[in-house]
Amino acid sequence: MILRTHYSGQISADMDGKEVMLAGFAHEIRDLGGIAFLVLRDREGMAQITLVKKLLGKDVFKMARSISRESVVMVRGNVKAEAKAPRGYEILPTEIQVLSAAQVPLPLDPTEKVECELDTRLDSRFMDIRRPCVLAAFEIESAVLCSLRDYFHKKGIVEVFTPKIVAAATEGGTDLFPISYFEKEAFLNQSPQLYKQMLMGAGMDRVYEIGPIFRAEEHDTRRHLNEAISIDLEVSFADDKDVMEILEEAVAGAYSYVADNCRRQLEVLNMELEVPRLPFKRITYTRALELAEEKAGARMQWGDDLDTETERFLGESIGEHYFLIDWPSSIKPYYTLPYEDKPEICRGFDLMHPRMELASGAQRVHDYSLLVERIKEKGLDPDGFEFYLRAFRYGMPPHAGWGLGLSRLVMTMLNLENIRDAVIFPRDRRRLVP
Q1: CA angle in degrees (0–180, nearest 5) for 244-246-251
Q2: I need a surface site. Which of 113, 230, 274, 380 has the fewest CB within 10 A?
Q3: Which regions form coiled coils (predicted)?
């Protein structure tokens, strides 16, 4: 059963006289008496279906005029070049079928003429995504993933998948979602971190994973979620500088790919995408505190994590992507490698967009004894990490890696106001459905 031969974006005025079949949603119907216009919307745009009563016949014309907005329709007809029509053509129909009638009233307005609250949009996400601007953002997100996978493949980095149901916390913290796992208690994984490192001990050398992570943090902000997609990388025989270079190339490459391959979507979003310049700036944690004090009068203690106001000030001052490097060892996780000559500072880094943190990474501790020592320093029990520590007893290469938030990357790339606009069905502390 063929219900579509073309998307609207595949048709042009050069196809004048050609028969086509379009399928999509009834975006709008304008009735002018003896003539009416049905605007059909599909994934690639809109097509004007011109309904002429004397050509269609009284019954078909009456049926077409009565189609409810957002009903699913199929239209067979002939292309006619028409300079005044969208995309320079219109369709003169010979057949119209309503495949699924939409009830009225609609839960929201997909024409984007009437704004509605974010909660209303998320409650009816299936309808919200019919809005061209929302759909465009998710098509760009797909392009970002395509770019990243292509880049990793060319760099000889292998895609892997690690468990999302685990027996112990990755970071050793309490921000975990417990679940019932037969007779045992288990947790949803916070990160593939430990498994990525174990794979370095397995000799896989260079791996990446794109998958969900879960954090039971009680945030209620525009940039936090409790389920997110993380892009994680781990590379053997590499240090923090090596993987920072991979990260900045991957991010800038994603921008470039979107700029070249998503022009229609960017046009829908009414934006021009500026590709970040390489290399990204490197700013030490200590220098960041000095800048905040010099320019904004902020007085943070060395060893404190950067607060939101300091991050915002640095972003406004720097105005582009940058790395924060050389963090205090006390702030970063136990698997972050301290400098040998200055153990109070570690080889950890964060990738920052002017608006927020995008990624966090480090050169890792690969020495078994030092790793056990670091776990204890963080007030954790090494016995709870035995499955992980075993891999370090039998030869572990030096390695480094990072984790990048997909939704934050897309949110900042497209200048979206809320991270929930970069997630199809977001999960936060208040939202579990749809």
Answers
A1: 95
A2: 113
A3: none
Active-site residue numbers? 215, 217, 223-224, 357, 360, 408
CA distance 141 to 228: 13
The SS3 call for residue 400 is strand
Predicted confidence (pLDDT) per residue in 315-348, tens digit = 999 999 999 999 999 999 999 999 999 999 999 9
CB atoms within 10 A of CB 405: 24
Q: Annotation-wise, does 171 bind a ligand?
A: yes
Is residue 73 a contact partner of residue 26, using CB atoms and an 8 Å limit? yes
Contact 339, 346 (CB under 8 A): yes
Q: Which two tokens stand for residue 253?
A: 């490459």
Residue for token pair 């006289």: 17
| Best CA proximity match to 233, nearest among 245, 251, 247 | 247
- The torsion of the CA quartet 272, 278, 282, 283, rounded to 10 degrees, works out to -30
Is 76 one of the annotated binding-site residues?
Answer: no
In order of start, what are the domains of the chain with their CATH numbers?
Answer: 8-100 (2.40.50.140), 132-280+320-422 (3.30.930.10)
d(CA 92, CA 14): 15
Is 68 annotated for ligand binding? no
